[in-house]
Amino acid sequence: MCRPFFLKESTMKFRADHHFVIGGDHVTYGKPCQDHALSQADDGMAAVVVSDGCSSGGETDMGARLTTFLLMQTIRELDKGNLGQESIFASRHAAFSAAATLLGLRETDTLATLLYAYLAPSGGHVYLQGDGVVARELRDGTVMLSRFDWANNMPFYPAYADSVNGNSERFVLAHGGDPSARLFTAEHWVRSPGSLWTKASEEASSLQDGMKGVSIAFDAAAMEETSAVAVFTDGVTSVSGVDWKDAVLRLLDFKTTEGAFMKRRLSRALKEFGKDGNGPRDDLACAVVLIAHDKKGGTDECIETTAETLA
Amino acid sequence: MPRITTPDGMKDHKLGGNFTFTAKRIEHLGATEYTLVTVAVDESGSVSGFMDQLLAMLKEAVGSCKASPRSDNLLVRVLYFSDRYRGGVTEIHGFKPLAEIDPAQYPMPNPGGWTPLCDAVYSAVGAMNKYGKELYDRDYLANGIAFVITDGGENASVATMPMVKAELAKSVTGEILESMVSILIGVNTASCKDHLDRFSKEAGMTQFIDAGDASAKTLAKIAKFVSRSVSSQSQSLGTGGPSKQIAATI
Fold first, then answer.
1. In terms of Cα–Cα distance, which of B82, B74, B129, B130 is closest to B109?
2. Facing B29 at nearest CB: one of A254, A259, A267
3. Measured between CB atoms, which of A259, A267, A268 is closest to B30?
4. Could you tell me if A229 and A143 are in contact, meaning their C-beta atoms sit under 8 angstroms apart?
5. Which SUPFAM superfamilies match (chain B) (predicted)?
6. What is the predicted pLDDT for the residue at A156?
7. Which CATH code of 3.40.1180.10, 1.10.10.60, 1.10.579.10, 3.40.50.410 fits the domain covering B32-235?
8. Contacts of B110 (CB under 8 A, 6+ apart)
9. What is the mean predicted confidence (pLDDT) over A255-273?
């Protein structure tokens, strides 16, 4: 389809990749890698997901994988075009329960966090249930980070919400029994090119609010100014000798963006951390969507698709 | 503004001494790690008696690499060398993925001129060092293996032995390429076998192999040796050292 020269619009091209590695403590104590990540991208949308299996649960490496695979499958099965968080989460919930039953997983096997980003040119969202880090990079180079933690490293897992056995109540009891206790924290940081990190805000939410999960919405305008969205399990905050914010920055410092670019970056970063005897103590999973914006216009140019800056 | 690229996504690179090479644009490479492979084939006048077999060997060697479980992680460069060429070498193709190579299109050697062995080794190893450094700087893991196949000793190079030694020394430090194997293969070299052995030792090449006569059978063995060694070296990538499975004889 060709458009007249006066209609300028931006085309967005998505690339996505992911990788996950076992943490030092898991090697030491003979545990498997219980983090997992997946990604997908095409011309119309991109989705990335990470999941962190509970280290004191059951076979939660399976739970983490079930979480990531089902999330991606859910998104593929639903119609594209700025899917809402509610529709994705509701479909995922039904599929998760059925799949866990089919595989004979116990509830303790399914304890794994969920953190995903779904992005389309017209908008998207990030959703978290559990803990982890979300990074957003703007086209001007500004990086914004949000880190979500639960007190005593006891996150609320989606499986608790899925459970019919009163696990939500037990979760509250494990945290002291007061659902209004502010034990779910978030801190937000900003770093402009050439400047230092600045804490933009921090807040503590109640257990009952935290259990609902966190949703961060992106409208079309936000998508226009975004160049990357990345999600990380909390392993990114466990890199010894490296501030977690700098660890995130290092992992987003892509030299090339073809193919397995996240894997290349994480592999090299781990080597560089390792030269100083550092590395992630916990498993680490990360997944990123890169958004290339290309302004086009002209009578003889065929526009490929997407977010129109002129209505 | 149109982007200026060579049609197949290759990029020109310069080495010292006016040597050049081409290689796949790194931004087009999707894997995490690559083995750089160079096959340099003598095209001096003395190979005229077996140029058909030489071409068949080259086609078989590169073509067989496609069966390697590591075929997606190989970037292959092929050279002919003779002092008829500026800088002693002509690049049949630069470093590119196997999927983009059709060995059936390799041109028949056109034998003539003298043997610029230093030029061949310098171009082969220097290009691997240069491209390997670029790969390293962009987060790719890389190692290399080079085969220089000749029927005669050095007698016409622009590059000097110190240049060759410096590049070979640089290639095995582990700072650019994780590991590097360089193999000089002599064919029909009854009269200069010792000379080639000394050349490989002085230059610092990994090994010299005297393959014997230039029969079709010998050259077929060389082809198998090349493809097996490439696969083995590629499988060693990530171990921190070169393959220990490469045979000492053909």
1. B82
2. A259
3. A259
4. no
5. vWA-like (SSF53300)
6. 95
7. 3.40.50.410
8. B43, B51
9. 97
Contact A170, A146 (CB under 8 A): no
Q: Give the torsion sign (CA, B49, B53, B54, B55).
A: positive
**pLDDT at residue B6, rounded to an integer:** 52
CA atoms within 13 A on the CB side of A41: 24
Nearest CA in chain B to A250: B139
Rounded distance between C-alpha atoms, residue A77 and residue A40, angstroms: 13
Contacts of B142 in chain A (CB under 8 A): none
Nearest Cα of chain B lies from the Cα of A18 at a distance, in angstroms, of 12
Distance from CA of B26 to the nearest CA of A (A): 8
Q: What is the 3-state secondary structure (H, E, C) of chain B?
A: CCCCCCCCCEEEEECHHHCEEEEECHHHCCCCEEEEEEEEEECCHHHHHHHHHHHHHHHHHHHHHCCCCCHHHEEEEEEEECCCCHHHEEEEEEEEEHHHCCHHHCCCCCCCCCCCHHHHHHHHHHHHHHHHHHHHHCCCEEEEEEEEEECCCCCCCCCCHHHHHHHHHHHCCCCCCCCEEEEEEEECCCCCHHHHHHHHHHHCCCEEEEEECCCHHHHHHHHHHHHHHHHHHHHCCCCCCCCCCCCCCC
> Is B250 a residue whose pLDDT tops 90?
no
Residue in B139, B140, B175, B237 to test binding to A, most A beta-carbons within 10 Å: B139
**CB burial readout A208-221, b (16+ within 10 A) else e:** eebbebbebebebe
pLDDT digits (tens, 9 = 90+) for A153-208: 999 999 988 766 678 888 999 999 999 999 999 999 999 999 999 999 999 999 99
* Domain range annotation of chain A: 9-296
Average pLDDT, chain A: 89
Preferred mutation among B24, B26, B32, B178 to probe A, highest tally of A CBs within 10 A: B32
**Residue pair B77/B44 in contact by the 8 Å Cβ criterion:** no
- Considering the four listed CATH numbers 1.10.3470.10, 3.90.550.10, 3.40.309.10, 3.60.40.10, the one that applies to the domain covering A9-296 is 3.60.40.10
Q: What are the structure tokens assigned to A224, written together?
A: 């226009």
**pLDDT confidence of residue A167:** 81
Name the minimum distance, in Å, from the CA of A262 to any CA of chain B: 9
Reported as a pLDDT band with limits 50, 70 and 90, residue A9 is low
Task: Round to whole Å and give the CA distance between B243 and B229.
Answer: 8
Query: Which residue among A254, A257, A264 sits closest to B140, beta carbon to beta carbon?
Result: A264
Label residue A95 by pLDDT band (50, 70, 90).
Answer: confident
Complex ipTM more than 0.90, yes or no: no
What is the interface size between A and B, counted as CB pairs within 8 Å?
A: 32
